[in-house]
Write a structure and sequence with these properties.
Helices cover 24% and strands 24% of the residues. The chain is of the alpha/beta class. The chain has 2 domains: 155 residues, Alpha-Beta Complex (Quinone Oxidoreductase, Chain A, domain 1), CATH 3.90.180.10; 151 residues, Rossmann fold, CATH 3.40.50.720. The strands form 3 sheets. Strands 3, 4, 5, 6, 7, 14 and 15 form a 7-stranded mixed beta sheet that branches. Strands 10-9-8-11-12-13 form a 6-stranded parallel beta sheet, with helices on both faces. The protein binds NADP nicotinamide-adenine-dinucleotide phosphate.
């Protein structure tokens, strides 16, 4: 292979403060020499990078998260890569892998190094029979979909006839959650999203039966009108006032699933909790949170089902691809400004292989 001479990387320049929007100003793009590999290592080209709101916690000064990026280090992030060169017996040139690649074009990885630094060495997974487009790996067969799966199927226990309410429905987790609720037989899926265009998109894509624009509608009234007998399941990605509005509109025996709280999680100080939690008692309901990484041993099982639904046409890929490594800070920032629909993915390099879809 003709190795390129340089490796573009985004390094952390400054920590993000609680009241700041995450953006390009927090990073610096540099050109570094190409990495070289030693025994038991693989050289990987980054093809795709996923995004997650949790990445904001990597770059705050308070080192509260298990992954913490220091000033001058490559920004951490998981992605899909192509093995260019291998000195490891289990990997060969041309393999597609998932790993914490970081915001860079090329990286040398040590697959057997299980040191939990959270940076570049953790959990290198070979992707067997990768489905094209490769963005499915980040979206439908990856952590976003696994989170939706746990939220809707494991904790939410959506069953035929349920009315399901989902916040941030036009996002990565939300857009898959809407589809999984349908697959489980929900009678009605109501999505909440920011702006008329996103609501329109939810309906046009067939993800929801009804959509509520929290930016222009009164949430409590709108939820009550779309869920007159209350929501049987509420998947919460947003928290704060949205959780409170949902709690005022739950059905008897509801399952309130806490997947995320993007509206309040990154504030300092964090606001007080929901006022309307007493409805959990009045409606004999439960509220339960989850962490998708607790389900790692079951990810293969989830993936088999997701792949099957995808091949049957019951599940579709809806993602927003930001082009080029240069777009990484903007793509990540869009999770906090709402500037994307579906799963938010960064394409760092084109998929070099031509393999038919399922
Ligand atoms: N529990 C777990 O293990 C787990 C795993 C993965 C993700 N999560 C959580 O799942 C949620 C969704 O993650 P994702 O990666 O799929 O992100 P996403 O939903 O694709 O993107 C975040 C969305 O949140 C909405 N948002 C941002 N700030 C908001 C605010 N102040 N008020 C209301 N809405 C706001 C925006 O949508 P609008 O334009 O509609 O406002 C934005 O597009 C996050 O809370 C994340 O932390 C949890």
């Amino acid at each position: 292979m003709n190795k390129p001479a340089e490796n573009k990387q985004w390094l952390l320049k400054q920590f993000v403060q609680a009241d700041e929007v995450l953006g390009e100003q927090h990073y610096e793009m540099v050109s570094s020499p190409m990495p070289t590999i030693g025994d038991q290592q693989i050289l990987v080209q980054t093809l795709l990078l996923g995004t997650s709101p949790a990445q904001r916690m990597y770059v705050t000064e308070q080192r509260t998260f298990h992954i913490a990026v220091e000033i001058g280090e490559v920004m951490s992030g998981r992605g899909v890569g192509l093995v260019l060169e291998s000195k490891h017996p289990d990997f060969k040139s041309g393999d597609i892998i998932q790993a914490t690649l970081g915001w860079q074009q090329y990286v040398a990885l040590t697959p057997d190094d299980k040191t939990d630094t959270g940076k570049n060495v953790r959990t290198v997974q070979k992707v067997d029979q990768p489905v094209r487009p490769l963005t499915t790996i980040m979206g439908l067969f990856g952590q976003l979909a696994f989170s939706a799966y746990v939220g809707i199927i494991e904790i939410g226990q959506v069953k035929p006839g349920d009315v399901v309410l989902i916040s941030s429905a036009a996002g990565g987790v939300g857009s898959v959650a809407c589809q999984l609720a349908r697959i489980q037989g929900a009678a009605k899926v109501v999505g909440i999203a920011g702006g008329k265009e996103k609501c329109q998109w939810l309906l046009e894509q067939g993800l929801c039966d009804a959509a509520i624009d929290y930016k222009s509608e009164d949430l409590v009234t709108a939820i009550a009108s779309h869920c007159p007998d209350g929501a049987d399941v509420y998947l919460d990605n947003v928290g704060g006032d949205m959780l409170d509005a949902a709690l005022q509109n739950i059905a008897v025996g509801a399952r309130v699933v806490i997947c995320g709280m993007i509206s309040t999680e990154y504030l300092n100080p964090r606001p007080d909790g929901p006022k309307h939690y007493f409805n959990l008692l009045y409606k004999r309901s439960r509220m339960e949170g989850f962490f998708v990484f607790d389900y790692v041993p079951r990810w293969p099982e989830f993936e088999i089902k997701l792949r099957q639904w995808y091949s049957e046409g019951k599940l579709k890929l809806v993602d927003d691809v930001f082009e080029g490594l240069e777009s990484a800070p903007i793509a990540l920032g869009s999770l906090f400004t709402g500037g994307h629909t579906g799963g938010c993915v960064i394409r760092v390099a084109e998929d070099p292989l031509e393999i038919p879809s399922l």
